[in-house]
Amino acid sequence: MTSTADEFTKLNISGDWASTAPNLQKNLSVLSIEQVELAKMLLEMGQTHLFQHWSEPDDDDEKRAFFDQTAKLNSSYPGGLSAYINTARELLADSKTGKNPYDGFSPSVPSGEVLTYGDDTFVQFEEAGIKEARKAAFVLVAGGLGERLGYNGIKVALPRETTTGTCFLQHYIESILALQEASCSLAGGDCQAEIPLAIMTSDDTHLRTLELLEKNSFFGMKPTQVKLLKQEKVACLDDNEAHLALDPLNKYKIQTKPHGHGDVHSLLYSSGLLKVWHDAGLRWVLFFQDTNGLLFKAIPAALGVSATKQYHVNSLAVPRKAKEAIGGITKLTHKDGRTMVINVEYNQLDPLLRASGYPDGDVNSETGYSPFPGNINQLIFEIGPYLEELTKTGGAIKEFVNPKYKDATKTAFKSSTRLECMMQDYPKTLPPSARVGFTVMDAWLAYAPVKNNPEDAAKVPKGNPYHSATSGEMAIYRSHSLILRKAGVKVDDPVIQVFNGQEVEVWSRVVWKPKWALTFSEVKSKVSGNCSISQRSTMAIKGSNIALEDLSLDGALIVEAVDGAEVKVGGSVQNKGWSIENVDYKDTSIPEEIRIRGFRFNKVEQLERTYTEPGKYSLTP
To answer: What is its EC number (predicted)?
Structure first.
């Protein structure tokens, strides 16, 4: 055993050690050498206040637990706690003086692809994307609970729509498996590709995500295809000097908060997963968020754009109205010649444009939309350049700090703050040679996030998107109805109804499993003759070889078939169908996942057929 005095000599702790943290010095005998190292780092970083409340040696377990926590905070942040505190001081100083992060930059519209669903170019990009899919890996950022939605579970467990009750995670996995199969059949030969899925979780969601997967046999994926990466929290900051905040309930614990989804980059790097994918010959990583039920409609074409244009970074985007509360993808050019293509938050875009010679700021062009497309946080990176960049940065992303000040002097905070980072800020560190572009698709096809609770959604100004469970489900029916229309099906116009105080278009309730059709060409190949669907109808297609031929549907139709069963559905299907009933979101007798929508289906009558054996079948009532 070396004595504490020897430890000090080794650590070069100066003579004024005792005067800065006498309570810590009294307790050194209970600490290991590693813990004394951490203590020295904290003192050097001006964090003596952490030890002011320490008692005489007795609460030894609590003190060791403090250093266990410190060690975790130190190891989970690129560069350690000292790097975190130094960055915090810089960013807090900039925040106090009101420094503009875009000083010296002028904005312009970047180059990218604007696609029109169903035209020849779109179809070509979709086919190119399906070809590439077997060389892709998917990353789902799922650290959040549904509390903001009025739902107590994890968000990925919420039903994407209530016609089939399929949850978001099941839909995502089934979409990836359908991509895998479609890509392999295009590749021909003995294609054994398994598309990997990584899910970034948090303390809040990790066990529940694992439980959801295990309980449902990973929704058809091999368990080895799925990797969970848990994100750690970061230390809170009490003031402009970046003093670490103590937990109000425990003086031996540093208060922590989430760091933001930008952590996904450092996790992919530090876990070694990115290198494994790269070495296995994969070419693309696709990042997506937890509750956008339409995003896989956009993925084949967007991946096709990445491959064709050889983009290192491709941001999926939707047309955005000027001043709409969604970030705009912008090219920034600095006075010194540096350029970058990044997401600029909507509240920063307008002042930036006004300061750069655009007197009207963020305004719509002749298209009726802003020339700066709306970022939907759906990103496609080419793995080679991505891994190369992360090897330089360790996965660290440019951070920001957003303290809530007590008053205009900006000297004190209302409550502790922390550094945050966003995954879409990755391009900020890229060299100008990086090929960074975007792909715009219509919002009806690609974007219907579920993030607002009924009360907040009802307050949204008329004409702006609600982004609620109500609008998210209705958007799926609209998307499927519009796709079928483009494929030649006569689909009735929607009616307007109000649920949970939100006025929405109610289209025919049409849903299909991803394996039925991933691309527009596939939908067209499975629909023929004169097909029509009335507005009050419901149709669920659950199988890959189900064809609609001269079908006239007025009611509810559910068709399920195993992979080897080929089913032709036609003729006139008429029944009482499923009606929609209003539900009050305050009615606690109804399950949360239903009442946050404001409606439920009353399944009065339907035609339902399930084909469990391979063979050829015809369903004509």
So the answer is: 2.7.7.64
